[in-house]
Amino acid sequence: MDFAPLAERYDQLRPAGETWEQLADATLAELGEIRRLLDVGCGTGRFAAYAAARTGARVWGVDPSPEMLAQARARAVPGAGWKLASAERLPFRDGWFDGVHAHLVLHLVKDAGRAVDEMARVAAPGARVVAATFRLEHFDAFHLNPYFPSVRGIDRARFPAPERLSRLFEAAGMEAVSVRPFTQQLSLAPEDVLERVRGRYISTLHLISEEEYRDGLARLEHDLAGRTEPVAAELHWALVTGSRPARP
After folding, report:
1. Residue 109 · residue 86 · CB < 8 Å
2. What residues pair up with 41 in beta bridges, in sequence order?
3. Comparing C-alpha atoms, which of 75, 84, 39 is closest to residue 57?
């Protein structure tokens, strides 16, 4: 997935409202006390900036997209470091961070096991590692399924189940591995739904055929024309967490 075309409008298409902050706060609670945080697949730097403001931690972000990193740097987060890198090859020495985070990243990498190994490697003894992902039932309940029928199958195939991620965490040597379900109910303004779909706000809308996308958009525009009541949606998250073993 090439995020370059989305970079400038990414935060507009996926705004950080109350729902986003609830998930971010839940993630910070899982991370615990942090002084040095690495955000893997940081994108536009939204979570890293939020974590720095909330905790006072020094933050670093890595992402393979120069365009997304340009947006992150434009936030001008004091003391932040931004590096162009993949999740499978993190440019940091062993045990440097006391918190490592990845939000909706591990379904995008070529080798999720390698990425988890790298996240564990750069975590200090006792540090927490948190990956935010979707539970598989999220894709069954996705509110756009009737318009884009291929999306469900594509995402169920490419997103690793939280249980698989927990096994990868354990294989990477982490302990106290847990999976915390986190469900959110949303009420979306019809015009916001249309704007996001027109901008192909999720990567899966770039993976379906152009014919399916255009047909689904046309039907969605027809169904939402003149609608005033909100569109109901659900987000079925999982926060997969583990700790690097403390030194004896």
Report:
1. yes
2. none
3. 39
Residue 129 vs residue 12, higher pLDDT: 129
Measured CA to CA, the distance from residue 106 to residue 110 in angstroms comes to 9
Query: What's the DSSP call for residue 245?
Result: P
Consecutive H or E run containing 184? strand 175-188
Q: For residue 16, what is the DSSP state?
A: -
Q: Are strands 36-40 and 58-63 parallel, antiparallel or unpaired?
A: parallel
Instruction: Tell whether the model's pLDDT for residue 248 goes beyond 70.
Output: no
Give the end-to-end CA distance of the chain in Å, rounded to a whole number: 42
The answer to whether residues 124 and 99 touch, using CB atoms and an 8 Å cutoff, is no
- By C-alpha distance, which of 174, 188, 166, 183 is closest to 26? 183
Cα–Cα distances in angstroms (integers) from residue 27 to residues 30, 33, 51, 157, 212, in the given order: 5, 12, 10, 25, 35
Average pLDDT over residues 228-236: 95
Task: Tell how many helices (H) and how many strands (E) occur in the chain.
Answer: 10, 7
